[in-house]
Amino acid sequence: MRNRDLSFWLFLTPVLLGLILVVIVPLIYGTVFSFTDWNGLSATTFVGLEHYLNLLHDQEFIDAIVFTILFSVVSIILLNALGLSLAILVTRQIKTNNMLRTIFFMPNLIGGLILGFIWQFIFISVFGDIGEALQIEAMQGWLSTTSTGFWGLVILTCWQMAGYIMIIYIAYLQNIPNELIEAAKIDGANSWQRFRNITFPLVAPAFTVSMFLTLSTSFKIYDQNLSLTNGGPFESTQMVAMEIVKTAFSANEMAYGQAKAVVFFIIVSIIALTQVYYNKKREVDM
Amino acid sequence: MKNSKFFAKMASAVALSSMILAGCSSDDSNGDNGESASGDKIQIDIFQGKVEFKEQFEDLVALYEEENPNVEINVETVGGGTDYAPVLKSAFSSGDAPNIFNVTGPQDVIDYKEYLTDLSDTEAAGAALDGTLTTVTDGEQILGLPFNQEGYGLIYNKAIFEKAGINPDDILSMADLEAAVQTIDQQKEELGLEAVFALPAKEAWVLGDHLANTYLAPEFNHDVMEAFEADTVTFEKGDEMKQFVDLQFDYSIQPVLSLDYSQQVEEYFSLQQVAIIQQGNWIYPSVEQMDPEFAQNIGVLPIPVEGNEGSLPVGVPNYWAVNNDFDEEVVQASKDFLDWMYTSETGKEAVLNDFKFIPAYEGYDTSKIADPLSQEIYEYASNGNTIGWVFSGYPSNPWGTGVIGPNIQKYLAGEMTWEEVEADAIAKWEEERQ
Fold first, then answer.
1. Pseudo-torsion of CA A80, A81, A86, A92, nearest 10°?
2. E strand spans, B25-88
3. Which of B16, B101, B257 is the mutation pick for testing A, counting most A CBs within 10 A?
C-alpha cells in the first residue's frame, strides 16, 4: 500500500470530485443552513443552536426516531437471518439452484414506490378478502393500525432486500474451502456443529458487510414508507426520513428540517461506525 | 522498466479523468432572461401544479402561440398539492425561476412577495368575482389571478336516493341527514350497497382541511385572512363536527384508516357501492372516466352546519402569479397571456369546456358549465350560499394535514377522545401563531 504516487491520485480524481460536489459540499452547506432561518429562498439571520434545542422536545421527531430504530432492529435481524438461510438453501446441491437465486433476488429490482403500492394492494385487498373467506379477523384492516403498519413495512423491506443480502452471503459461503468441511466431517462433527464452528465464523466478514447495508438502508427508508402507509395512521408509522421531508417541505421549515437531517446523519453514522468496528473485531482470519 | 509503466499509468489516468470531467461540463450558453437565443421571440416559462388539466392547458397554449407568433410558451407541470411547492422553491433558489407560477394561499404570497408582479391593471383582475382576490390583495396591489372556483360537500348517487325514497332537497340539518342515512342503511341490501359512506380517513386533507374547515369557517366569519391572522381557534362548532365525523365513520366502509381517496372515488363511489361521499367537484373527471352514464346522475348536498344550512364551502384553490424578476417586455407578455386565457372568447371557451372549471370571473355563459357537479356548485356560489374556504389560512406547520387531520384519525382509532382532539389542535394553533 505504499504506491500512492501521482497516478493514484489522478485515478481517484473523478470519484473524489463527484464525492465532493454531490456529498461533501451539500453536507457543509446544509450544516451551515441549519444554523440560520433559511426558508428555501433566502436566509437572513443566524439563529445559532435554536433549531437543535427545539429538536429536543419535538415529540413528532422523537417518535419518528424511536419508530425507525425499532423498525431497523427488527428488520436487520430478520433480513440477516433470512438472507443467510436463503444463501445456505441455494448453495446446497439442488437442481433449481440458479432459478431460485434469481427468484429470490428479483424483488430487489423493483423500485420502492411501486413495491409499496403493490404491497398496499396485497395488505388491504388480498389480505382482506382472504380474511373474509376464512373468517380470520386478524387479516382485516391491515395498515389501518400502528402495529400492522409496522409489520407491513418490515415484511415489505424483508421481501425486497433479503435476496440482495443472500447474494452477499452466497459469495462468502462459496469461499469456504471444502477441505475444512471435509476434515470436520471426518472428525465426526454433525451438520449443526459444522455450521456453528466452521461456516458461521468464516462468513463473519459477510455479516459486517450485510449488517452495515441493512442498517443504513432501513434507517434511510423513505419511498416504501411513503407509498405503503404514508406515515399513517395518524403519523404513527412515520420514519425519520419522511418526518424530515415533511418538516422541510410541507411545514416549509427548511432550516429546521436541515437541522433534523444533520442530527439524523450523526446518529446513523455513529451507529454504523460502531457496528462496523465491533463486527470487524469478531472476524477471523483463515 | 519502472518508469515506462509509471508513464503508462499516468497517461491512462489523465485520459480517464479528463474524459469524465468533460462529461460533466455542458455547454449551456442559452440566454436565460426570458429571451431565447434564436430570433426575437419572447419566451415564457409557465410552471403549474394542476395535473388534471395539463393536456387541455397545453392545447390552449398552442392556440395562443398560433395567434401570437412572437411568443413562445413552455409549460411545465408538476403535480399534486404537496409536490409542487418544493419544486417551485428549488427552481427559485437555483436561479431557474419560471415567469408564471402558482401561489395557493396567504403564506405563499408572503414567501414570494418580492417576486410577485402587481396584476391590478389586467382585465382579468377586474373581472374576478367578489371575494376571490382577498388572499392575494396587498393594499392596492393584486398579486395573483384565481384559477377557478372549487366546492365540496356530500356527493350523492341520485338513483339510490330515489330508490330509497329520499328527497335530497329536504336534507338541510344534521337531523335530516342522519335520518336519510339511516333510511339508506336499512335498505342497503336491496340497494346493492356495501355502506352508506366511504370515509377516506387515510387522507389527512379530507379530514383536516375540508371536513374541519366546514365547521371552523363560521368562527372566522368565512374569511381566510381572518383565519390567517387569528391567534387561536375555539372550536365553537366542535360538537357538530364530532357528530358529523361520527356519522360518516359509523356508516362507512371499514376500516376507514386505510381507505384512501382513489378507493373512495373510484372503487366505492363510481362502482356504486356507497351512496354518499364527502368530496368536491374535482372528482367529476374520475367518475366520468369510470362510468360516463353514472356521472350524469350525481349531485352535491351541503354538509349540515347549524346556522349555515344549505351552503356549500366554495373557494379558490390556486392563483396564477407573474414573476417580476424579468424584463418589462416578458412580464407584460406573461400578463397578456393570462388575460387572454380568462377574458378572450377562445380562452373562456376552453376554461369552461376543456378545463371544466367553475369560472372565478364575470362574463361567462355559465349555463355552459360542463358537468352537473360544477353546475350545482356554481349555483350555490352565485346565490351566495357559501361557507368560506379558510383552510389556506390555517397555520403552516401544516395545521390541517399535520395536526387536526391526524388528531381526528387518532379519534377514529380510539387513541384520543374528542376533547383531546380539540385541546391539542388549539394548543398547536396557538403555539404556531405566537
1. 110
2. 42-48, 71-77
3. B257
In single-letter form, the type of residue at position A98 comes to N
Residues B262, B287 contacting (CB under 8 angstroms): no
Query: Could you tell me the residue range of the domain that residue B411 belongs to?
Result: 152-314+388-433
* B184/B248 same-domain check: yes
Q: What is the pLDDT of residues A108-125, one digit of tens each?
A: 888 778 888 888 888 888
Q: Smallest Cβ distance to B413: which of A6, A233, A252?
A: A233
Looking up residue B246, the CATH number of its domain turns out to be: 3.40.190.10
Query: Residue B402: which of A140, A230, A251 has the nearest Cβ?
Result: A251
pLDDT at B31: 40
- Interface membership of B407 toward A (CB under 8 Å): yes
Specify if B380 maps to a domain. Answer: no
Do B241 and B338 share a domain, yes or no? Answer: no
Contacts with A140 from chain B: Cβ below 8 Å: 255
- Give domain A52-285's CATH architecture: Orthogonal Bundle (1.10)
Q: What is the ipTM of this complex?
A: 0.76
CB atoms A40 and B90 under 8 Å: yes
- In a shared domain, residues B424 and B285: yes
Judged by CB atoms closer than 8 Å, whether chains meet at B397 and A234 is answered as no
Closest-CA distance of chain B to residue A235, Å: 7
* Contact flag A6-B10 (C-beta cutoff 8 Å): yes
**What are A248-265's pLDDT values in tens digits?**
877 778 888 889 999 999
Please indicate, yes or no, whether residues B25 and B161 belong to a single structural domain of this protein: no
Structural domain contains residue B85: yes
Nearest CA-CA distance, residue A140 and chain B, Å: 8
Closest chain A residue to the Cα of B24, Cα to Cα: A18
Residues B305 and B324 in one domain: no
How large is the average pLDDT for residues B151-174? Answer: 89
Outline where chain A has alpha helix (H): 6-19, 25-33, 50-56, 59-91, 97-105, 112-121, 127-134, 146-173, 178-186, 191-194, 200-202, 204-220, 223-228, 240-245, 254-282
Asked if B273 is an interface residue toward chain A (Cβ–Cβ < 8 A), one would say no
Residue B357 near residue B320, CB atoms below 8 Å: no
Q: How many CB atoms sit inside 10 A of residue B147's CB? A: 24
Pick from B110, B151, B152, B116: nearest CA to B132: B151
Task: Identify whether B376 is part of a domain.
Answer: no
Alpha-carbon distances, residue B223 vs A173, B378, B403 (angstroms): 69, 19, 21
Chain B residues with beta carbon closer than 8 angstroms to that of A145: 257, 413
A117 and B CB contact within 8 Å: no
On whether any CB of chain A is under 8 Å from the CB of B110, the answer is: no
Q: What is the residue extent of each domain of chain A?
A: 52-285
Per-residue pLDDT, averaged over B78-107, amounts to 80
Do B182 and B110 share a structural domain?
Answer: no
Contacts of A148 (CB under 8 A, 6+ apart): A123, A141, A142
Instruction: Tell me, yes or no, whether B168 lies in a domain.
Output: yes
Contact between chains at B258 and A142 (C-beta distance less than 8 A)? yes
Which residue out of B17, B20, B101 would a mutagenesis test of the A interface target, given it has the greatest number of A Cβ atoms within 10 Å? B17
Clarify whether residues B305 and B158 are in a common domain.
yes
Q: What's the domain count of chain B?
A: 2
The shortest C-alpha distance from B349 to chain A (Å) reads 35
The pLDDT assigned to B1 comes to 45
User: Hey, is the C-beta of A131 within 8 angstroms of any chain B C-beta?
Assistant: no
Is the domain of B279 the same as that of B333?
Answer: no
Q: Classify A66 in phi/psi space as left (phi over 0), alpha (psi -120 to 50) or beta.
A: alpha
Question: Which range, of A166-170, A179-183, B183-187, B296-300, averages the lowest pLDDT?
Answer: A179-183
Domain end marker among B347, B363, B379:
B363
pLDDT tens per residue across span B11-39? 666 665 665 555 544 444 444 444 444 45
Does the pLDDT value for residue B369 go beyond 90? no
The pTM for the full model equals 0.81
Are B34 and B43 contacting, i.e. CB atoms less than 8 angstroms apart?
Answer: yes
